[in-house]
Design brief:
6 helices, Rossmann fold, alpha/beta
Length: 172
């Protein structure tokens, strides 16, 4: 069965729970949605030296195939020290060095970004939007920020899924 939407979690805590909510909402809208917990993907730390010495890790090939198979993504990431969590930065670094075009996996891909964060959560979304846009992704204008005092509302998740459904991936 084809995956219509891949919901990527960059933590195994509140953002994984948020990712599950996005996936459940998508399934309720007749989309085949899966959750990918990046904390379960075992990757060495990306460095140019590691890349030259060991090449692309096998886990990156499998991860890249899974990501490429889904035309739309939701990324749920907590704020780490005012920016993107290391597990997500590391995965993006590895994914961008495979093949001849570092943007190929991201170019024209519709993506929603969301965060459940103990801090504000806005800094991670600004950093993530900047990086994904640089990689050529079509990041949906609206985003979702939640925390313990301001939990994500079902209506907000539904709206983001509906916005994402309206966007067709662009083949560049």
């Amino acid at each position: 069965m084809r995956t219509d939407l891949l919901v990527i979690s960059a933590s195994n805590g509140e953002n994984l729970l948020l990712a599950e909510r996005f996936a459940a909402c998508a399934r309720g809208r007749a989309l085949n949605a899966e959750v990918l917990d990046l904390t379960e993907v075992s990757l060495p730390l990306f460095t140019p030296r590691q890349n030259a010495a060991g090449g692309i890790p096998a886990a990156i090939g499998a991860l890249g195939e899974r990501l490429a198979a889904a035309p739309r993504w939701v990324i749920c990431a907590p704020e780490y020290n005012g920016s993107i969590p290391p597990v997500l930065t590391n995965a993006i670094a590895w994914l961008s060095v495979q093949g001849d075009d570092f943007r190929s996996l991201f170019n024209g891909r519709p993506i929603v970004i969301a965060s459940h964060s103990g801090s504000g959560g806005y800094s991670v979304l600004v950093a993530l939007r900047l990086q994904l846009s640089y990689l050529g992704a079509h990041v949906v204008g609206r985003q979702l920020v939640s925390n313990h005092s301001k939990p994500a509302r079902d209506e907000g998740i539904e709206d983001l899924i509906d916005r994402l459904r309206q966007l067709e991936p662009i083949q560049l």
